[in-house]
Amino acid sequence: MTSSAAVPLRFGILSTAKIGREHVIPAIQAAKGTTVLAIASRDGARAAATAEDLGIERSYGSYADLLADPEVDAVYNPLPNHLHAPLSISAMEAGKHVLCEKPLAMSADEATHMFRVADQHEVTLMEAFMYGFHPQWDRVFQMVRQGEIGEVVAVQSWFSYSGGDPDNIRNVLEWGGGGLYDIGCYCISVSRRVFGREPTSTRGILVREPGSGVDVVASGVLDFDTGQASFTVSTRAALYQRVQIVGTTGTLVVPVPFNPSRDQTPELLLTGSRFGRPERISCPAGDQYGLMASAFARAVSSGTASPVPAEESVSNMAVIDRLFADGSRH
User: Fold this and answer.
1) Is the residue at 239 inside a domain?
2) Strands laid side by side in the 125-128 sheet
3) What is the pLDDT of residues 49-76, one digit of tens each?
4) How many domains does the chain divide into?
5) In terms of domains, do 275 and 145 share one?
6) What tens digit of pLDDT does each residue of 207-222 get?
7) Domain co-membership, 205 together with 268
8) Same domain membership, residue 62 and residue 175
9) Please, what is the angle between helix 84-93 and helix 108-121, to 10°?
10) Same domain, 193 and 101
11) Which of 71, 108, 109, 115 is nearest to 92 (CA)?
């Protein structure tokens, strides 16, 4: 199933999850080349109410019914992590393109299988790593490539929020809950992209919550040929995020790296080796969710490679696998 340039890519949304309602669905509706045709939930009344609230034409009381709709071209899957693979695979087997929330899967092997299914059914599968579509990251990666801070020596990142509700899907171990899956994936992705290669070794330490068993604090160190990356994420700490890239001649700080608001004009902080006052570099505002949806639609329409390649998603999951293995030994 493909989309022409004249016809918007028609999305079906799997579930009424908050991220979809508040961020992704409005972005898809406003983005160039995309529209939302349908939404599904296991609770038909909830799907119908959400459809009415958001101006979506069709609602379904089961995911299977949405996947059977021949006019749905693609699905957005924001279901709990353990349902990313099975529901995305069902969608692809129904001929739908898939934009799936991060983390794409529960393991690198599972992610690899998902891309094999995509190839078999000639559809596009893309992990919804929205942060990289924001204009500020175009500027960051340009500055790094051009050597504005010299050779990169280290990447340090932090991402946290306080979410202790035991009924929240992020606190259910069997559903892929915990900080490393939910937000650690961002820190790993940034580190790999800045260094432009894969880590040669990893070390991870996880603090698991008694009772739920989910990791509520997770730290990792990634060794690269030319430097190191370190990060800490937590689902039981103050709301905070930051990325710092340290080079041989300067340091670049991204104060709001992962989810700036669509109206926010982010600033980067560039400091030279003499520790003077940081230079503030303003970046354009942008709706990273909408930019992601448009990029996905262009790839589908043109039949070109996904802007988040399979190798990126599988490699990111492989690092997560290794950090979980490291953490289980502590």
Assistant:
1) yes
2) 58-60, 34-40, 9-14, 74-77, 97-101, 125-128
3) 999 999 999 999 999 999 999 999 999 9
4) 2
5) yes
6) 999 999 999 999 999 9
7) yes
8) no
9) 10
10) no
11) 115
